[in-house]
Amino acid sequence: PVTKFIVGTRIGTKAAIVSLVIYTAPFLARLLENSLLDVNAGIIEAAQAMGQYIQIVIHFVLPEAFASIILALTTGTIALIGATAMAGYIGGGGIGNIALTYGYQTFNFPLMFSTVFILIAVSYTHLRAHETR
Question: Where are the alpha helices (DSSP H) in 38-108?
Answer without folding.
Answer: 41-49, 56, 62-87, 95-98
